[in-house]
Amino acid sequence: MTASSITAAMARFASGTGAPPESALAVARLSLMDWAAVALAGLEEPVAVMLRALADEEGGAAQATLIGGARKVPARMAALANGALSHALDYDDTHFAYVGHPSVAVFPAALAMGERQGATAAAVVEAALMGMEAACRIGHWLGTQHYNHGFHQTATSGAFGAAVAAGRLLGLDAGRMAHALGLVATRASGLKSQFGTMGKPFNAGIAAANGIEAALLAAQGFVSRPDGIECIQGFAETHAGEARDGEGALAGLGEAYWFEAVQHKFHACCHGTHAALEALIGLRAEPGFDAARITRVVLTVNPRWLRVCNIPSPETGLEAKFSYRLTTAMALGGLHTGALDVYSAATCTDPVLMALRDKVEVTADAAVSDTAARVMIEMQGGTMHTAAFDLDRPLPLAGRRAKIAGKVRALLAPEAAEAVIALDDDVAGLSARALAARLAGLAPVR
Hints:
Blueprint: H1 6-15, H2 22-41, H3 46-58, H4 75-87, H5 102-117, H6 121-148, H7 153-170, H8 174-185, H9 199-219, H10 235-238, H11 246-249, H12 274-284, E1 294-301, H13 317-320, H14 324-332, H15 345-348, H16 351-357, E2 360-364, E3 372-379, E4 384-390, H17 397-411, H18 414-421, H19 423-426, H20 432-442
Parallel strand pairs: 1-2
Antiparallel strand pairs: 1-3, 3-4
Helix pairs in contact: 1-6, 1-8, 2-4, 2-6, 2-17, 3-4, 4-5, 4-9, 5-6, 5-7, 5-9, 5-20, 6-7, 6-20, 7-8, 7-9, 8-9, 12-14, 14-16, 17-18
């Protein structure tokens, strides 16, 4: 497989007739459950309120559900608003093959297009899975240089995934799917400089919307560069893509699903902080551990995270989600980092937490993987505590489902939580419109 054929290979995958394995579909259903929960929990976030208002004001064809909105709106606008809504809390899943959030870019596009087309909910999940798989593999092919240069892979690679999902539900053949991907190559955008602002969740929304737009135009015969991802002056070349060996990025495509390794969040902050948080929580639980005796804390992480979640002195709840030093202080101070309300301006200015925060040093080591962290805590008298944690530890499907169900129950009121958890079993018997109606019924119009 050469770099020059990556768009064609992805287009064949996206338009093929082969069904994904049940193991991958099972994980996708869990991500649907997780995605629905974080979307419903984020209804009152400012970015969600503003985009709903924009969608309601613009109006248009009643094609797809605007979660929390007063009416149905065009599929592209529903994808934009619902994508941003579901990333507003930064509590959605992450895939470390490309360091992106797959569900928030792809599920909104798949659901909106599924509603528009009158598809089944099972078809939505299958299309979303294939789109998320595409995002993982294209993102991996673009490589760490693309991400480290400042591009937000949730938005860039996510837009390609959204186009795959939307195009599959439209029934695009490989030729038109390639044109959809080529068109996304000129539309995909999103910058990491927006982290800590409303611009970050907006990035997820524009990925979903761009995917729908490209797929709809391709379905009409719209022509673009069908090799727009990898051609000269194409997406990879102009967006600092490494264009890694295509054979590695696409090995087993359609048979082995990388998406199965997706990581679900159990702390309501940037996923780059989670390995450190798990290590810290483990140390804090040791008998006799006393945070008041800490003199120094050293976190060691992969260098890529220093430009993502290392805001040294955050002032807002959003900034707190991207601060190694403050999240460390929160964990050591006994705050529940899975709770939404602890990420606030008050937490940022709490004198006890600020004192702990200022004892934290963040260092980098390229030998530490993207999913891992090392922690060293020095206590009064010179006693040292050390721990390491890697998020890439296998978690059985039943265990993962139980943890996600616990997260859903923590985020939502009991009745809503059980309705979301039931999606894992109910999807097989629902239409896309019934699935969207369930979500709308759980989201009071704001």
